[in-house]
Amino acid sequence: xxxxxxxxxxxxxxxxxxxxxxxxxxxxxxxxxxxxxxxxxxxxxxxxxxxxxxxxxxxxxxxxxxxxxxxxxxxxxxxxxxxxxxxxxxxxxxxxxxxxxxxxxxxxxxxxxxxxxxxxxxxxxxxxxxxxxxxxxxxxxxxxxxxxxxxxxxxxxxxxxxxxxxxxxxxxxxxxxxxxxxxxxxxx
Length: 188
Ligand code: 2AM
Fold this sequence. Notes:
The protein is an alpha+beta fold. The chain has a single domain (2-175), classed as Alpha-Beta Complex (Cyclic Phosphodiesterase, Chain: A), CATH 3.90.1140.10. The chain is 27% helix and 38% strand. The strands form two sheets. A five-stranded antiparallel β-sheet has the order 2-6-5-4-7, sandwiched between helices. A hairpin with a 2-residue loop joins β8 (153-162) and β9 (165-175). The structure holds adenosine-2'-monophosphate (2AM). Adenosine-2'-monophosphate (2AM) binds next to β3.
């Protein structure tokens, strides 16, 4: 079985900014640089033939490159803890790409994703007893913001679980189309 997901990998300058924001709260379980990503679609465990169909279906996506920037931080809360994340804007192009990825996955035979798409880069996971440190992180980084960065490809990852936590391996990468710039009108 292969545990797969589709994601955008932020460039190094953006990952550096995120790593700087992580600061020094050793009680939170921070995501390592190698694992930072924005999930477009979590696929989960699939057998090889379906994985191949998904990869083929993803390769047929035609979508233009776009720009994103980091803005703000937030948390997901579950009963036992949750995740800290950085948000991105604008939402429309990344949501449009996620919708195409979703269609490709369903076209390959996966069940539709029922959860709403909430684009974010997970930075840490926390347990209930670390709630104060998680809250302090949110307050410290409320104004987190980056320059725009180009999203010109997306990636199919395989997640391998080990003693040291998950390790994400690139299985395939899919370039987005070059952006068409608006035609310059010639001055008469
Ligand atoms: P995240 O994007 O909020 O961190 C690989 O596991 C990636 O898929 C993670 O980035 C994870 O969440 C995302 N993901 C989405 N739904 C998931 C699920 N049900 N189980 C595990 N990971 C999931």
